[in-house]
């Protein structure tokens, strides 16, 4: 994981926002970095949930507490996760 830039997150809730989640590589990496830095909870928000290729598996394996996406792209049943 890359370095975490900004204020310390140890014991805090981190909110990560992105315009789009496509394959979820960037989001999964950011979530893992925040958790490694001591974040208590990680909430992810995105405007467009493309969720292509390995996205669902990456999101399932990332320590995300909650994931919010808009309905700009329909979310089929096979892509729905408990955290969404």
Q: What does this entry look like structurally?
A:
- By secondary structure, this protein is an alpha/beta fold.
- It is built from two helices and three strands; from the N terminus they run βαβαβ.
- The longest helix has 12 residues.
Q: What does this entry show, briefly?
A:
Helix content is 23%, strand content 26%. The protein is of the alpha/beta class.
Low-confidence stretches: none
Radius of gyration: 12 Å
Number of strands: 3
What is the average per-residue confidence, as pLDDT, rounded to a whole number? 94
Q: How many H/I helical runs?
A: 2
Secondary structural class: alpha/beta
Oligomer: single chain
What general form does the structure show? elongated
Q: Termini separation (Å)?
A: 24 Å
The amount of helix comes to 10-25%
> Which strand-content bin applies to the residues?
25-35%
Q: Biggest β-sheet, characterized?
A: 3 strands, parallel
How is the largest sheet built, in terms of strand order? 1-2-3
Helix and strand pattern: EHEHE
Summarize the helices and strands and which ones pair or pack.
Layout: E1 13-21, H1 25-36, E2 41-49, H2 55-61, E3 66-69
Parallel strand pairs: 1-2, 2-3
List keywords for this structure.
84 residues; alpha/beta; 2 helices; 23% helix; 26% strand
């Amino acid at each position: 994981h890359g370095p975490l830039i900004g204020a310390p997150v140890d014991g805090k809730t981190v909110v990560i926002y992105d315009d789009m989640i496509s394959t979820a590589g960037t989001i999964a990496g950011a979530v893992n970095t925040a958790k490694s830095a001591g974040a208590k909870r990680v909430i992810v928000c995105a405007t467009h949930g493309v969720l292509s290729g390995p996205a669902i598996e990456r999101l399932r394996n990332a320590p995300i507490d909650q994931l919010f996406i808009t309905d700009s792209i329909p979310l089929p049943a096979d892509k729905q996760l408990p955290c969404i």
